[in-house]
Design brief:
Layout: H1 14-21, E1 44-49, H2 53-62, E2 70-77, H3 80-89, E3 104-106, H4 110-114, E4 120-123, H5 130-139, E5 143-146, H6 154-169, E6 174-176, H7 184-194, E7 201-210, H8 224-230, H9 236-239, H10 242-245, H11 248-258, E8 264-270, E9 285-291, E10 297-304, E11 311-318, E12 322-324, E13 327-329, E14 335-338, H12 346-360, H13 367-386, E15 390-391, H14 392-396, E16 433-434, E17 439-440
Parallel strand pairs: 1-2, 1-4, 2-3, 4-5, 5-6, 7-10
Antiparallel strand pairs: 7-11, 8-9, 8-15, 9-10, 11-12, 12-13, 13-14, 16-17
Length: about 450
């Protein structure tokens, strides 16, 4: 792909992104063409691109939408065993499976073939591939469910925002797997904040502090690129570091609660507790202060190592009270509101609402906030990797692209191991954000 084949960074200002996302004004972009509806009696052909654990889970959920006539018709993954695993997992739904071997595509280019055989595509490959797959899917006229994060660099963010606009023009429906947006407890909490029950939000804390992550050993026959794609969570160009891959959920909640995007970020991070013998490039902890319009500060923490107290939640302070998800109290401890509902599984609700939008041509496009929240996490990573304060717009304007063009198994990946087989982490004293034409401190 030509690095100049999408609009330049100047096309996407932070304010334009806010408007497109509905964060300013609250409106969904107008939809005017006639591509978006599938009558309730017609089959929706499902394609799966990325057949690992999350892709398989999303497939099971989309095949389980009540009353929706669906068929799995094509699958692609870089690795054949993943394809076989996904198909085995949905064997109990065999009446909804029509995916013969000639529609099972192995390799890095298999996604292009899946798009020839589906109406709705699930994008669940390693996140570094997401912008390119999303762009291809929208150009091919497909509805999309895509996992978070949707981008890991500025180039990918701009590509996703452009594809989001194209999706609106084609009346295509897009859901992003930031499932808290589909959780009734979160939705009602945000509604109460919007009503002013806690007053103006003036600060908050968001956390994803937990233990370590999976690791897949190197097989002797693997090339370096094949090993890194197989072990994608441990490489920045593929996962965006865990501040993007995992902590994006909590950062997205902050953006949602505040109804704003951060203006800047400053933070620290590092790698000190990754398991010996499991070489990994990414950090195991990040701590970032995000500054939002009006001077609101959000303190962000994420870690992936054992020991200490785990914490995965979001808390906010308003001028009238304290916000936890599902409860708002005043500062004397008096409960002002407590969630008493019983919402459905948000992982399933995502797909239920996506199918409903497709069937009934309802506006639905999560790609804007999916992109802006993913890029908020990238902003935090830029701050921790460089040890410097970075602005949102400043970061978005970088010609920063981490995914190699024309990637193949025999390509040289963006990072290579040292003589001991380790991948040195980004060092703030020397790290330069990779750009297409030059380096930027």
């Amino acid at each position: 792909m030509n690095p100049r084949s999408i609009p330049s960074a100047a096309t996407f200002s932070r304010r334009d992104a806010l408007k497109a996302a509905g964060i300013i004004g609250g409106a969904v972009a107008a939809q005017t063409s006639a591509q978006g509806q599938t009558p309730s009696s017609e089959v929706i052909r499902i394609g799966l691109i990325g057949a690992g654990g999350r892709g398989t889970g999303a497939l099971q959920q989309t095949l389980s939408v009540p009353g929706s006539n669906v068929k799995l018709t094509a699958v692609a993954d870089a690795f054949d065993d993943r394809i076989k695993g996904a198909l085995k997992a949905v064997e109990p739904m065999k009446e909804k499976i029509d995916c013969p071997e000639d529609r099972q595509f192995k390799g890095l280019d298999g996604y292009q073939k899946v798009l020839e055989h589906c109406d709705l595509v699930i994008l669940a490959t390693p996140p570094g591939f997401r912008p390119f797959h999303f762009d291809a899917a929208i150009k091919a006229g497909k509805h999309v469910f895509m996992e978070k994060p949707v981008c890991v660099d500025a180039f990918g963010a701009r590509l996703c925002l452009e594809a989001a606009k194209m999706a609106d023009e084609k009346k295509l429906k897009v859901v992003v797997g930031l499932q808290r947006r589909y959780d009734d407890r979160y939705r009602q909490t945000v509604a109460k904040v919007r009503e002013g029950l806690a007053g103006d939000i003036i600060g908050g804390q968001v956390y994803w502090n937990g233990g370590g992550i999976w690791y897949r050993g190197r097989k002797p026959e693997m090339t370096e690129t094949e090993f890194q794609v197989h072990n994608w969570y441990h490489f920045d160009w593929l996962c965006g570091d865990h501040i993007c891959e995992q902590h994006v959920h909590n950062i997205d909640v902050a953006n949602w609660i505040l109804d704003r995007l951060p203006e800047s970020a400053y933070g620290v991070g590092g790698k000190q507790n990754r398991v010996p013998g499991q070489p990994s490039e990414i950090y195991d902890h990040h701590s970032v202060n995000f500054v939002y319009p009006g001077g609101v500060r959000i303190a962000s923490q994420c870690r992936q190592f054992p020991g200490g107290d785990g914490r995965v939640n979001e808390e906010f302070q308003g001028t009238k009270g304290f916000v936890k998800i599902g409860e708002i109290t005043d500062y004397s401890g008096k409960v002002l509101w407590k969630y008493e509902g019983k919402g459905g599984n948000p992982y399933q609700v995502e797909h239920d609402e996506l199918h409903d939008a497709i069937r009934n041509d309802k506006p639905l496009n999560n790609a804007y906030y999916g992109t802006t929240s993913s890029f908020s996490a990238v902003l935090g990573r830029n701050a921790t990797y460089t040890g410097k304060q970075w602005g949102y717009q400043q970061s978005l304007e970088l010609e920063n692209r981490t995914m190699p063009e024309n990637l193949a198994w025999d390509s040289t990946p963006p990072v290579m191991p040292d003589k001991d087989g380790n991948y040195p982490p980004p060092m703030p004293a020397t790290y330069k954000i990779p750009t297409i034409n030059k380096e930027s401190a």
